């Protein structure tokens, strides 16, 4: 799977993909993440990517030509399944969307800044708009990193223990069960006996019950 992320601040995206699971996925060749500097596609000497909003008002708006040039170049090189714009007014990212995207081939992600991007970029090029929650950040880079992380860890072969993604919160509309590790007794705070029993089916049953209980208490909406 390949992600092409178009950003005016590519430096913001260096670290998130250079560690841990995302780094391993790229080393294994399962995911390719390429960040493009929007400014490289800006016409003129100024390399400007934004301009004043028509109709007046505060904040700058990102212009069409650099995004159009970058998207068109990418599309001339390969087919894309989605062109995603990270935006607070998009559909809110959840595990279902992450699962859907994890079976795609090539995805372009656009990161906005300032007041946002010219509406016509959205109308002409964008196939899907995704928000990471009901709050506003200063740019689309952190949301893009969140989206790529959520998707890449679901691609088969990325996590060393493949079943571990399946038991995570929101897969099967359940929150995850509580987890414990050594020591079994910390200053009198003990690990539940069942986890020390070695009885795998019973442990599985306990985890399922805990997951249901936790979901009932914290996110009853998931059980509806
Ligand atoms: N004026 C816009 C916000 C612009 S914030 C509005 O009110 O909707 C600048 C950029 O940051 C956005 O274009 C988007 O790419 C990104 N961004 C900010 N918050 C986001 C969120 N919750 N989810 C996804 N992207 C977000």
UniProtKB/TrEMBL annotation:
<comment type="similarity">
    <text>Belongs to the RNA methyltransferase TrmD family.</text>
</comment>
<dbReference type="InterPro" id="IPR029026">
    <property type="entry name" value="tRNA_m1G_MTases_N"/>
</dbReference>
<dbReference type="GO" id="GO:0052906">
    <property type="term" value="F:tRNA (guanine(37)-N1)-methyltransferase activity"/>
</dbReference>
<keyword id="KW-0819">tRNA processing</keyword>
<keyword id="KW-0808">Transferase</keyword>
<comment type="subunit">
    <text>Homodimer.</text>
</comment>
<dbReference type="InterPro" id="IPR023148">
    <property type="entry name" value="tRNA_m1G_MeTrfase_C_sf"/>
</dbReference>
<dbReference type="Pfam" id="PF01746">
    <property type="entry name" value="tRNA_m1G_MT"/>
</dbReference>
<dbReference type="GO" id="GO:0005829">
    <property type="term" value="C:cytosol"/>
</dbReference>
<feature type="domain" description="tRNA methyltransferase TRMD/TRM10-type">
    <location>
        <begin position="1"/>
        <end position="224"/>
    </location>
</feature>
<keyword id="KW-0489">Methyltransferase</keyword>
<dbReference type="InterPro" id="IPR002649">
    <property type="entry name" value="tRNA_m1G_MeTrfase_TrmD"/>
</dbReference>
<comment type="function">
    <text>Specifically methylates guanosine-37 in various tRNAs.</text>
</comment>
<dbReference type="InterPro" id="IPR016009">
    <property type="entry name" value="tRNA_MeTrfase_TRMD/TRM10"/>
</dbReference>
<keyword id="KW-0949">S-adenosyl-L-methionine</keyword>
<keyword id="KW-0963">Cytoplasm</keyword>
<dbReference type="GO" id="GO:0002939">
    <property type="term" value="P:tRNA N1-guanine methylation"/>
</dbReference>
<protein>
    <recommendedName>
        <fullName>tRNA (guanine-N(1)-)-methyltransferase</fullName>
        <ecNumber>2.1.1.228</ecNumber>
    </recommendedName>
</protein>
<feature type="binding site">
    <location>
        <position position="112"/>
    </location>
    <ligand>
        <name>S-adenosyl-L-methionine</name>
    </ligand>
</feature>
<dbReference type="InterPro" id="IPR029028">
    <property type="entry name" value="Alpha/beta_knot_MTases"/>
</dbReference>
<feature type="binding site">
    <location>
        <begin position="132"/>
        <end position="137"/>
    </location>
    <ligand>
        <name>S-adenosyl-L-methionine</name>
    </ligand>
</feature>
């Amino acid at each position: 799977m390949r992600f092409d992320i178009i950003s005016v601040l590519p430096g913001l995206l260096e670290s998130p993909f250079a560690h841990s699971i995302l780094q391993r996925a790229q080393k294994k060749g399962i995911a390719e993440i390429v960040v493009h500097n929007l400014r490289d596609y800006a016409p003129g000497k100024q390399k400007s990517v934004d301009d004043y909003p028509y109709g007046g008002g505060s904040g700058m708006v990102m212009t069409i030509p650099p995004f159009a040039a970058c998207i068109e170049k990418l599309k001339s090189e390969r087919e894309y399944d989605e062109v995603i714009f990270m935006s607070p007014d998009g559909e809110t990212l959840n595990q279902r969307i992450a699962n859907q995207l994890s079976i795609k081939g090539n995805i372009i992600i656009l990161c906005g800044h300032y007041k946002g991007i010219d509406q016509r970029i959205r109308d002409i090029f964008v196939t899907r708009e995704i928000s990471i929650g009901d709050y506003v950040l200063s740019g689309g880079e952190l949301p893009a990193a969140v989206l790529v992380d959520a998707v890449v860890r679901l691609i088969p072969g990325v996590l060393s223990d493949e079943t571990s993604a399946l038991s995570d919160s929101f897969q099967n509309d359940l929150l995850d069960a509580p987890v414990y590790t050594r020591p079994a007794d910390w200053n009198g705070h003990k690990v539940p006996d069942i986890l020390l029993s070695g009885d795998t089916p019973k442990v599985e049953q306990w985890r399922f019950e805990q997951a249901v209980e936790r979901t009932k208490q914290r996110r009853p909406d998931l059980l509806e």
